[in-house]
Amino acid sequence: MELMNQTVKNLRQSLDRREISARELALEYLDLIGELNPALQALAGVYDEGEVLACAENAQKLIDKGNASALTGIPAAISDNILTSGRATSCASKMLENFIPPFDADVIETLKETECVILGKTVMDEFGIGHSPKSGAAVGAGLAVFALGTDTGGALGQSAAFNGLTGLRPTYGRVSRFGLASFASSLDQIGPIAQTAEDCAMILNVISNPDKRDAVCFGRNNRGQAEDFTAKIGAGVKGLKIAVPEQFLNHQTISEQTKNAVLDAAKEFENQGAVLINSAFERASKTEMFDYAVPAYYIISSAEASSNLSRYDGVNYGLRGVGETYYEQIADSRGRGFGDEVKRRILFGNFVLSDNNYNNYFKKALALRQKIKAEYDEIFKTVDIILTPTLPKISETFDYSDPASMYHTDICTIPPALAGLPSASTTCGYTTCGLPIGMTLTGKKSDEQTVLQVADCFERIFNPDL
To answer: Is the pLDDT at 379 greater than 80, yes or no?
Structure first.
């Protein structure tokens, strides 16, 4: 079977029709991983063949009985900061390179219950701090049908955009964070990366369960009922109001190729019956959303990271430091165990939380976050979806050795993350050298259905094979 560009939906049909067995499918993916992963380095750890095939055989039993769920027998990859019982979870850090969790994250428990076939853990930036596209690389190269990753300020959407895929950041609290190694707790969210919006909807149906172990997880709608996120797939966009904010498109960091691709997508939505609205952001353009979202995000996320990462002292767990005193031991543990970017965030986080700076930085950033949320509430009184770029420009033009340059690649994805809103990134065009260009669709709180509906509509036009 050709594994490139396989969708959850198509493989679900093939498995249910007995066109291929779960074991045969798993073996094909393991063979491709063995062939490509040594060069790609997309998977940090590949599960043992015996373990994978045992899961596939259990999945086949469910399929044969007619009890398969959407993900039963579907090969998947998991980000290395999501805890897996008995399997190494290093968070790409030397600090945790030998850490074996004693329990599973909530999403892993769910995947195991459905007999989804987990193939391995994806490479990531240390503790999820950065812009690693490796989860998307694993899916894009055909090493897994989908991946579960984490998003704090836009990583899921950016990883999808780098690799020509669809990535969904659900509403904050939609998916349990229990068992996720925290970076910034008020921003972290688990979500899927797959070939299509429909696949993301199918995956979200499975993983969006209420979980009392996560205080902010709601998982269901206001009536306590499970939602079907595929309900609006194929419905089109006729009558929907889509805001296309010029403030994003005309920002100095946005390249002409990116701007033109997003505008072309907007015109296609209009051709399909959507109503384009440009005026919704006129008032917001004069406020904090565009000028201060990035600084506010990095103040809040770094402050929370400095608190979350303080648990790694080499005593309870983590790299054991050496020295004659406790101070020397912990300094050695963190000095050798943390990378440069993690140290930078910890230092910055402690700076903004210090007595002299708390009011001037952290408290103001929290106030700005509330204003950004209020701006979105105001905008969504008149529109259904906000359309923006995912990445400002061609990825190869960024200087990733310059932290300030790297941070500003998040300018389009940080505002919805701060507001806790659902957003999906999907491909809307290609650069002259063939690199994919992503666009982000942001919706109202808990309205993943509409976000996925609009993304699906464009995908069916952009890729007629769907």
So the answer is: yes
